[in-house]
Amino acid sequence: MTLADGALLQRLQVLEDREAIRELIARYGPLADGGNAAGVAALWTENGRYEISGFGSATGHREIAALISGKTHQQLMSDGCAHILGPVSMKIDGDEAVAVGHSLVLRWAGDRFEVARVAANRWELVRTAQGWRVDLRKNALLTGEEAARALLSLPA
Amino acid sequence: MTLADGALLQRLQVLEDREAIRELIARYGPLADGGNAAGVAALWTENGRYEISGFGSATGHREIAALISGKTHQQLMSDGCAHILGPVSMKIDGDEAVAVGHSLVLRWAGDRFEVARVAANRWELVRTAQGWRVDLRKNALLTGEEAARALLSLPA
Amino acid sequence: MTLADGALLQRLQVLEDREAIRELIARYGPLADGGNAAGVAALWTENGRYEISGFGSATGHREIAALISGKTHQQLMSDGCAHILGPVSMKIDGDEAVAVGHSLVLRWAGDRFEVARVAANRWELVRTAQGWRVDLRKNALLTGEEAARALLSLPA
């Protein structure tokens, strides 16, 4: 392989990595609203963590799956809900990446849809043998707290 | 061309396909809210179908265009509306693809914006001589029904 | 380099351009809601312009930064806010590009989130020595006016 080919492969790899991370994050909403607990958990690494400010945190596939199969989320699904993400801005550094963006939860209130949650998200991702996975997702409501806003800053 | 080139072209093609599908779907909202009936219809194949649960369905360019030029959508545009899609998760299999994701319709109610629709979407796409087109889009309100949630599951 | 390589590089470049523009636009929301005035301004060219229908316009980095550091936006941040963009549809023509899409502003009203703004956006972008930058962003509320809807049409 020539040197030029190497540079070209590197450029292709960057695009593939960004595409894989975008796809991984795009799966969260459909999997969550479809009630696929194992599918949601599998977005994370084995010991990955999901911290939801003011709600608690879940570590590892079993605990993350329980967020979906648990009472709160099942009630939300039965009411009618949508976990919608905004676009993510991301930065990849070798086998690690950070992505930031917003998330919304809409809920059917019986006669109208209400905006149940508006949150900031920071996703810390790692490249594994199975592809990119979430190692840590932090989520915090944008209700005026500086700590939530801080999640939205991407490393320089 | 060497074997390495072939693999490389294949990887490039996958990225181009994903980009083309994302662009196709991203056009729906701006075309619909811009009132471009022919433009919306052209996102579909000639005999493509758009099924809107609880509203009906449209088959082929003429019927799909009529959804935009028709009274309901024109009233919505005149009120002030936004058809906003969430990110899509997609899976391509040769010349066919499936994408899933959420959609929102926001409406100006004269003194405030209201969330008029929150729906699940399943897009079945095919590669045509003119590029990727929608063969079937299914849309259903996320008001608690299992059938709507089922639209969000991506083939394994 | 063979002719085939040239065509391949051209295809790779198109994907990189689209990815760079998507990333640039995806940064707006997190930077704005994180209160990063200089970061928001740096998305634009030196003399870039941001026109917000019914609100005014800002030209150049200093004025664009002032939109973020100014009283209105700081109050919004302190209330709790999210500037969320929909997907963008884009068209690149050499060193220029146009992208269109929706934007939402959600605001915490103390006891619930309200949809404060729903707008149409047209982004005119240029390739600079530092990468793609916004030369003009036009934003107008989708409250029924034709001028706002017109922002959503992409060049053929």
Structure notes:
- The structure is a homotrimer of 156-residue chains.
- In chain A, strands 1, 2, 3, 4, 5, 6 and 7 form a seven-stranded mixed beta sheet that branches.
- The first copy, chain A, has a single domain, classed as Nuclear Transport Factor 2, Chain: A, CATH 3.10.450.
- The first copy, chain A, has helices at residues 3-33, 37-41, 60-69, 71-79, 146-150, and strands spanning 44-52, 56-59, 81-85, 89-93, 96-108, 113-128, 131-141.
- Chain A contains five helices and seven strands; from the N terminus they run ααββααβββββα.
- Chain A is α+β, with helices and mostly antiparallel strands and 156 residues long.
- Chain A is globular, with a radius of gyration of 17 Å.
- The longest helix of chain A has 31 residues, at 3-33.
- In chain A, a hairpin with a 4-residue loop joins β5 (96-108) and β6 (113-128).
- Helices cover 38% and strands 40% of the residues of chain A.
- The mean pLDDT of chain A is 96.
In short:
The structure is a homotrimer of 156-residue chains. Chain A is an alpha+beta fold and 156 residues long. Helix content of chain A is 38%, strand content 40%.
The total of beta strands of chain A comes to 7
Strand content of chain A: 35-45%
The separation of the N and C termini of chain A measures 33 Å
Enumerate the spans of chain A where pLDDT stays under 50 for 5 or more consecutive residues: none
SSE topology string of chain A: HHEEHHEEEEEH
Report Rg of chain A.
17 Å
Structural class of chain A: alpha+beta
The CATH topology label of chain A is: Nuclear Transport Factor 2, Chain: A
The CATH class name of chain A reads Alpha Beta
Task: Give the biggest beta sheet of chain A.
Answer: 7 strands, mixed
Residue share in helices of chain A?
25-40%
Helix segment tally of chain A: 5
How many structural domains in the coordinates of chain A? 1
What is the architecture of chain A at the second tier of CATH? Roll
Oligomeric form: homotrimer
Biggest interface: chains and residue counts?
Answer: A-B, 35 and 33 residues
**What would the principal axes of the Cα set say about the shape of chain A?**
globular
Mean pLDDT of chain A: 96
